[in-house]
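Anyone? Bumping this.
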Amino acid sequence: MSLPSEPVLAPAAEVAGSGPSRPAEGRGPWRTAVRRLRRNRSAMVSLAVLLAVAALTLLAPAYAGWLGIDPFRSNLAGTTVIDGQSVPVMEPSTTGLGLGVTPIGPTWDLGGYLLGADNQGRDVAARLLYGGRNSLLIAGSATALCLVLATLVGLVAGYMGGIVDMVLSRILDVLWAFPVYLLAISLSIVLLTSAFTIGPVTITAGSLLLPIGIIGVIYVPYVARPIRARVLTLRQSEFVLAAIGLGLPTGRILRKDVLPNLLPTLIVFVPILLALAITTESALSYLSIGVQPPDASWGTIIQDGQTLLYSRPWVALAPGLAIVVTVLALNVLGDAVRDALDARGHGR
Amino acid sequence: MTMRLGRAALAGAALLTTTAIAASAQTREELMEQHRGGTLRLVASAAGGTIDPQINYTAQYWQVMQLVYDGLLTFQKAGGEEGGVVVADLATEIPEPTNDGKTYVFQLRDGIKFSDGSDVGVDDVVASFQRIFKISGPTSGTFYNGIVGAEACIAAPPDCTLEGGVVGDEAARTVTINLVAPDPEFLLKISVPHAVILPAETPATDAGVTPIPGTGPYYFESYNPNESLVMSRNPHFQEWSAEAQPDGYVDRIEYGFGLTDEAQVTAVQNGQADWMFDQPPADRLNEIGTQYAEQVHVNPLTAFWYAPMNTNLPPFDDVRVRQAVNYAIDRNALVQVFGGAVLAQPVCQILPPGFPGHEDTCVYTQDPGTTWTAPDMDKARALVEESGTAGQDVTVVVEDTTVSRGVGTYLQSVLTDLGYNASVNAISSNIQFTYIQNTNNNVQISVSQWYQDYPAASNFLNVLLSCASFHPGSDASVNISGYCNPDLDARMQAAMDLAVTDPEAANAEWAKIDQAFMAEAPVAPLFTPKAIDFLSTRVGNYVFSNQYKWVMSEAWVQ
């Protein structure tokens, strides 16, 4: 697992007044960053790809509705029409000993079974879109959860220092000591076997909140540490010391002076965490400990396709390609965002 | 005239049979000379656990235990239904029960040795029966609890003596087994591997990976569950009964672990392995069935896949809902999940086709009669509506295997069609079977399988659905539905008693009990699977027994 080291970012206040890469008069650091990002063609292509993937997955219900199918229901006894002829979705072998039943292959026709059927006779293309929705939803929610938790921990540990910092840092150390997938798998296995309750909220075994929570938590140490380090630096910066000297309340200092200067760091983490969350969710779902059937994610569709690799490889290839394209786009965009926000980098 | 011709024909047939038997005996010797030797290479995705024959309870290892161990009696090493016939093994003959069916006296054969060279004696037999209880064997409380003294042994396993229950007479070389009550299935129960005879000094703990000497034609040479199980010829074996324990053709059997099912298929295709334990994956079946048809053997199994429904939890505490599920399931669709009509057969009864007590009948189909034809969704929906349970949450708990997940996903679809908010929870195969048994886990409906231990109706109905098999809060509560019906329990006990004197009448009664259970529908029978054996080209003399599947000792590789 590789996560970016602490981004070399200048605080907003410093960026505004920095030297050679100093933005044009009247242009703020954010506008400068956006301008740099827009000039990066790779980033723009990646962004377009991501937007296209997101848009397509949002169209999943419309596509399924147009086809008149429910991609979450088995269709083992169903038929479809190809070249004007009705054919079974699951084709029993008629040669040799007559062993096995093979799902219909890709028709390359948007009107049905574009990518073929899976071993339940369900339309793979429609499930791919629904699966993408879940994968992106989980990744997005887990990223948001992780950033919120990591920011809270990093902020409190870095600013308060002392015993609070020590306790929080050791907790992060313990979490960090576990290989990330081992931790995710352990949590999933424990939590997926039964529902559990937190206060008034009961989370059922098949709920998407489980993979969101698990993925959101396991990456907290990887984000909280750089944030804590950044807060430690900010804590000693002149504008924060000045605020303390003026006797401003701690909450206000954190909210108005420290937190805004953490935003570049957090933004850089967003695409990276999204990419990691997508791959982690896919891995967990592939291992049957993420999204539970009949819900789909790209990971569960790969698992469905694993048993059809020889006869119907597209069932596994399609979600695999979707993951590759999305994660690649996120990584390229992540690099571009870091470059765009890296004032000192541009100054060198 | 007719009578005379008939007698002549009978005499001729008898002569032919005698000649054929003599010829086949001779042929066997010749075949043994021709084909003896070589190494049989088996592959599986995983090992089957402990190699302690009195503890292991897996079909995978029961198959190989046959080659290594013997009991007083055993199932005949023969193909088809004959494989379910009990024959004398270490005992000279099957004894007739005395004392109103409560006492059996076994005469021990002379001259049989364990693979470590020690003689098999009466003390070994007595100690082996005691050991079943000392190690708290998995069937000690179900198969062997009818032996005098068993109750005390179950209460205090380390002190087990089975006093008055298993009595040895060294001088006469006899072992007397006394039962608390007549048990028509007792001879079947002592023919399974849990009642094999081991050296008296065998420690009363799970042997795990340490081989225990046996009396069969092979012995366990080494065992590493992460790598392989190796069996070699037992140097002290001399064939005493070809039907009970035939000598093997191959010199050595290597059972390798760790290959995926895909890799196993490829290994057999390439001749790198001779047989794969796991069922070939779905997407290779067509290829195997067409390009390698001559290397494939498909045989019916006395087993069934079923969906136990928890009769103590909503919505399945309402019999109408359980009946609705039975009506709604398209069993042909599930047959497709298992690999098609060649590999499975739809069923809507508990006792498998061809099993004692089975009578073709099906209520839960569009046209009730003898066989299942199609689901009746209208009737199913009407029953759910009557019950007023639509909209409730239902979770189907399945094993994390391709077929189990496929069946579970299909059931989820059916339950959704019936109006429930259904989901599927796939958990590891290592824990699923015990998880669904424990009432603390509140499993509503699950997917499971049951394979016969021995050919008797009670091995399905009594084991799976009696009140005695329901243990709330325990992982060992094989009555997964939690269904307890004292009336049906009494009828089952009466059928078992009847089997002592009139097995046919008992089987007829079992058929009625099967139907009575299905009227209450604590389970939804799905399909009866078939076994598929995919062998390399060099394997010859394939014999399939209904009891232990492929009889490996009868196969040759050269």
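Late reply, but here is one note on the structure posted above: The CA atoms of residues 148 and 220 of chain A lie 9 Å apart.
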